[in-house]
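Budget justification, computational time. The allocation requested in the original proposal was used primarily to generate C-alpha cells for proteins on the priority list. As evidence of use, we reproduce two of the resulting records. The first is shown immediately below.
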Amino acid sequence: MKEIILNDGTKIPTVGFGTYKCTEQEGIESVRSAISNGYSLIDTAAFYGNEETVGKGIKASGVSREEIYLTTKLWRENLGYESTKKEFEKSLKRLDVDYIDLYLIHWPANAKNYDNWQKANADTWRAMEELQAEGKIKSIGVSNFFQEHLEALFQTANVIPSINQIEFHPGYWQQELVAYCKKQNIAVESWSPLARGKVFGNKVLESISNKHNKTVSQVCLRWIIQHEVIVIPKSTSTKRIQENINLFDFELSLEEMELINTLPEMGFSGELPNNWPDII
C-alpha cells in the first residue's frame, strides 16, 4: 500500500476503510474483511456509534495493533478543553486500544452553536496537543474545516493539523480549500468519495471506466488518489472491499483527470461547517 508522509513525519496509507453505518456483527465482519484484504487504515468516529464494533473487528482480524492505522473523531457538540479529554478517553475505552493514530475534530465550532467559536476550537486543539505530547495520539487533525477555521486555529496552535478530512468527490471537490491545505502542508483526506452513489450512471465516468476495464468506483477513487488526496471508501460487500483497494494497476490520463474535474455538481451532501445543525 502506498503511503503519504504527514507534516509530523508519520506515514498514512493513501487508501483506507471507512466505517460510517458499519454496526454490530456486520460491522465487525466488514472491518475484519477489510484488514484481511490489505487495508490498514481504519476510519471511525464517536458520532458513528460503532467504535466498539470497529475495535472488535480489528481484534477479529488477528493483525497486531501496531500494523493498524486507526482514526477516530471528536463530535462537534463536545468541543472544549475538558470535554475533549473526557471524550477521547471514552473513545479509547470503546475501541479497546491504548492509543489512536489520528484524532480529528469532526466539525469546527461555529457562531450558531458557540458564543466564541474560535476559543472552542482553540481549547479543543490545546487538549489534543497535550494528548499527542503524552503519546496517546500519534497525529492530530481536523475535519470539515474551511480556510477561515484553519486560520483562526493557527493563531493559538503549537501544532499544525496533519490532515483536513473533507467532502471530496467528482462533482464537489473544493479545489480552493484543497489548494490552501496543500500550501500549509496539511494533507487532505476525502469522505463520501463516491458522492453518495451519485457517480453511478454518469456517462463520462462510465466511458472512462470502460476504457480501463475498471468500475466507476475504481475510476473515482483513482481520480482522488491522483489528486494526492487520501481516500476512505466504505462497503460491507467483500467484493467491493477488494475492488476499492485495487487502484494501483492503472492510471488516468491528464485528459481524463480534467474531464472528471469539470463534471457538474453532483452528490453534494449539503453539509457546511458554519450551518450545522441545519443542512442547507
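The second record produced under the same allocation is shown here.
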Amino acid sequence: MTTVLLVHGTGVREPGYSEGLERVRAGLRPSRPDVTVAPCYWGGRAGSALRSGGLSVPGYGTGRDVAEPGARGGDGGGEDEDVELWGLLYLDPLLELRLLAAESGGRAELAPGAVPPGEALSSAALALGSDELLRGLLDSAGIGGEFAAAVAAVVTAPDGRGFLRSPAAADGPDVLARAFAAEAVRRRAERSGSAAAFDGTARDAAVERITALLTAALTDGAGTHRGPVTRGVKRLAGRLALGLASAQAVKRRSALTDAAHPAAGDVLLYLARGGAIRELVAEAVRAAEPPVVLLAHSLGGIACLDLLVERALPEVELLVTVGSQAPFLYELGALPSLEHGRPLPAHVPRWINVYDRRDLLGYVGAGVFPGRVEDVAVDGRQPFPLAHSAYWGNPELYRLLAAELP
C-alpha cells in the first residue's frame, strides 16, 4: 500500500499539524482510499524555539497585546483586483460597510409602513444558518464553524449597525455578504497553531449564495456600489500598509515576536543546522510501508530535496513539493545539499513541484533543474500570505495527487 508522508513547512506546530494531516487525509480519501497518509512532524522535536525565554528580545514579555516555462496550469488576469480586495477585507472585514455608509450619508427615507432595508437584512442575516446549500459551501470554504459568530459580530458592530441604518443598506447585500465571509476567515486564521487553508472558489460561491438570500429579503432587489467603494478601498490601502509599519509595532514587539519567530526561526535554524529535520524525515521513511511519497510543504520541501540529494532512499518513489523555495535557494547558491551548477543526482526520484502564482513563497524548478522536475500551477484564489497555505483547501491539489500517486 502506498504511504504518503506529510512533511510540514516552517512555523507549523500542534495542534495545527494534526489538523492539516486530517485535512489531507480527507482530501485524498474519496479518490484514493488505497493510500495511507502518515505523519512526519518535525516541528516539536527539531523546530526552533526561544530557548532562553526571549532574553534576546528587548522588553520581551512586558508589552504583549491581547490578542513559467514547462508548467501546467493557467493565469488569473482580471481576478487579481478581487483577490487584492479580499486581502484588505481579511485585515478589516468592515471596511466596505464603513466606506459605503459614509458615501451614502444620513438615514434611509422610507414610505409609510415600509420595513427598513437594514432591518430586513439583519433578520435575514441571522437566519442564514438554516440554508442547507449555504452550510455546505461554507464548510467547503473552510469557514463553516466560524460563520454564525462572524455574522453576529458584523451586524452588532458599530460600523455594521451604521451601515444597516444607512441608505446604502438597500443596495448592499453583496457588500454585507463579503463582510460576513471576511470576518469568518479572520476568525479562522487567528486560531493558534493552525495554518489555515481556504478554498477561494467555494468562498466566492458562498458569498453569491449569501447575496441571493439577502437580496430575497428586500422587496426592490439589490444594486451595486462596487465602483465607488472599490475606489475608496484603493485610496485607503496605502494608509493600511503604513499602519502595519507604524510605531504600534514597537509597542507590540513581544506579540509580534511570538507570532513570527516559529516561522522565521525554523528557516534560520534549518539553514544553519538542518540535519535534525532531515534525519526525522529519514526515520519516517524507514518506518513507512513502501512505495513512499514525500508530500512536503514549503521548508519541508527543501528538507526533503536535500535529504534525497544526500542519500539514496529507494523506498521513496515520488517527491511532491508544495509552495517550495528549493529551486530559488538552488539558484541563489544557498541550497545546503547542492551547489548551483551541479545537476541533481540520478538517484533523486521523480519530482512534481506544485505552486500558486499568488504564493510569493512558491517557486518553479523546471528552468534550474531541466528535465528533472515538473511544475504544476494551481489557483487557490487567495491573496498572499494565505495563498501559501491555501493548497490544502484546494480540490485541484487532490485531483492532481489522485492521478499521480503510485
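A brief technical remark on that second record: Confidence is low (pLDDT under 50) at residues 64-71, 73-77, 220-247.
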